[in-house]
């Protein structure tokens, strides 16, 4: 039975030029390269230039993804931008990206699920494609967390970085079996009971200010592996695929220890895990599409590969998507 699936036609990433190393950070707060490397696996992260906005990063990544897909902006029906660091409270930064890409048709909106934003946005795009509302969609994750971290808090400022990644999705008829290209399943979860574990202490309706990121790192860590593996087991149960079938595991890049513990618990071989956290830090919603763009550019990720995405972050929000590249 033939059916329409959301197939990735192209991928792209963008990282701001400036890098901030652990050595540089240790001149700013009481930390060390040894501590950051051991606890997180992070060596450096990118920081947006003065005046360089989330929409600039997002637009740059979208341009690369469009070129990689061989798709023109005229063919795009929808832009979904996952971000927790929009240019302004409103309008959605997605409409700024739409304008910067020269697109006057279709629609554009933001999705806010912090580090899980890309997984939530991809799931939404897939649902809209399969319902027939749209055919081609740019899904972007873009963040400038350097603007909301508290640069005096060593417990959080060493973890995050800026960047953007994007994919071009297209609704394509597929035979309707396990070999189909495109999204096979997605599962989203959230539980607001945990919202104070990872949040920003400001906002338009509370303080009227932007605020700074606050995190109970140890608490987030404690829940991460269990939540990630539960939602992935759910995706496996839905699709009939198992860890042995996965060609590439592309997890949210928050902490090497969380990534490795999740892969181990699921029984995914270490060689199948895409890791970019050492060079990007945690770029929140941008981390998965950035990792996809790296793995595609270096030739690891190839057409037909079975790819498992997962994320977990503020909310808590978490989710997983299984797709064939
Ligand atoms: O993307 C959204 C999801 N977010 C995450 O997944 C983050 C999850 N959490 C983590 O990745 C880890 O909890 C951290 C990397 C944030 C922290 O690692 P940890 O092993 O949980 O360390 P800890 O918070 O238990 O702190 C251990 C010690 C503390 O000192 P005491 O109390 O043992 O004396 C901290 O004060 O390390 C200290 N510490 C630091 N030392 C040097 C905290 N931050 C730093 C630092 N440099 N940057």
Count of alpha/pi helices:
10
Compute the separation of the termini in Å: 20 Å
Question: What class do helices, strands and sheet pairing give?
Answer: alpha/beta
> What can be said about the biggest beta sheet?
5 strands, mixed
| Distinct bound molecules | oxa(dethia)-CoA
Classify the helix fraction into a percent range.
25-40%
Q: Roughly what fraction of the amino acids lie in strands?
A: 25-35%
Main β-sheet, spatial strand arrangement:
1-7-6-4-5
What's the pLDDT, averaged over the residues? 98
Note the overall shape.
globular
Write down the Rg: 18 Å
Low-confidence stretches: none
How many beta strands in the DSSP annotation?
Answer: 13
Helix-strand pattern, N to C?
A: EEHHEHEHEHEHEEEEHEHHHEE
Give an account of the 3D structure.
This protein has 325 residues and is α/β, with parallel strands linked by helices. It is built from ten helices and 13 strands. It is globular. The model has no long low-confidence stretch (mean pLDDT 98). The chain binds oxa(dethia)-CoA. Residues 31, 35-36, 39-40, 115, 154-155, 158, 217-218, 220-221, 224, 254-255, 258, 282, 313 line the site of oxa(dethia)-CoA.
Task: Write a brief structural summary.
The chain has 325 residues and is of the alpha/beta class. The chain has helices at 22-25, 33-40, 54-69, 93-100, 117-130, 154-157, 217-239, 256-266, 277-280, 287-297; strands at residues 3-14, 18-21, 44-47, 78-82, 107-111, 136-144, 162-174, 182-190, 198-200, 213-215, 248-251, 306-313, 317-324.
